[in-house]
Amino acid sequence: MAVPASLRKRVARRAKNRCEYCGLSQIGQAATFHVDHVVPQVAGGESSMDNLALACIHCSLRKGARQNARDPQSGRTTRLFHPREDSWNHHFRWLAFRLNGITAIGRATVEALNLNSAEHQIIRTFERRLRRHPPPGHL
Questions:
Q1: 2: pLDDT confidence band, cut at 50, 70 and 90?
Q2: How many whole angstroms separate alpha carbon 1 and alpha carbon 41?
Q3: Rounded distance, CA 3 to CA 43, Å?
Q4: Which end of the chain is more exposed for a tag (fewer CB within 10 A), N or C?
């Protein structure tokens, strides 16, 4: 089911036009970001502000309908980062252009969404030149 345009605008405004997983700014990107159902519709997730997040194309496609992934440190399955319930700064830290997961949730999300892909690294380099990286409020 498509997310109504008015709801999409509210989600983007709340996210300050940034991917709520990797922090990438939608400004300057050729592709329009997706509105992600944090809890997928196939798992009963609703199209409500409490369950929607703005996601860049990369993060949206990598996440898909997943809610859980393996923590590469412990090997245990854990839930992915939930932008409505979790504090980004509690789970992630920047190390220049690399995003480090500092909790099981953070590590699993970085791994599952491949948040340090070569494409992410290149984009972050350019974003830094434009003073859009790191994202405001993200340590």
A1: confident
A2: 9
A3: 17
A4: N
CB 79 within 8 A of CB 68: yes
- pLDDT beyond 70 at 1: no
- Which residue, 81, 80, 61, is CA-closest to 70? 80
What is the Cα–Cα distance from 8 to 95, expressed in whole angstroms? 31
Q: From 66, 52, 50, 47, select the one nearest 113 (Cα to Cα).
A: 66
- pLDDT higher than threshold 80 for residue 47: yes
DSSP 100: E
Q: Which residue has the tokens 């791994």?
A: 111
Tokens of 131: 């003073």
Tokens of 13: 């405004």
